[in-house]
Amino acid sequence: MRASAIAQFSSDSKVLATSPFFPPVSQTRASGHFPRSRGTSRHAQRKNMKAKIEHKKKEREAQPW
Hints:
Helix content is 48%, strand content 0%. By secondary structure, it is mainly alpha-helical.
């Protein structure tokens, strides 16, 4: 991991990471255990994807041409 990646990583997570290898853990989550995976879950990704597609459809319909 390069320094810029680490800086971006720590700025992305709300929690101040003590080390660059500490995954972003939400404040509500018990601090003792690591999240199941580092990135967004598959479910969240699918939800985001669906929302994105819906938004694009609406944008297309709104355009007069």
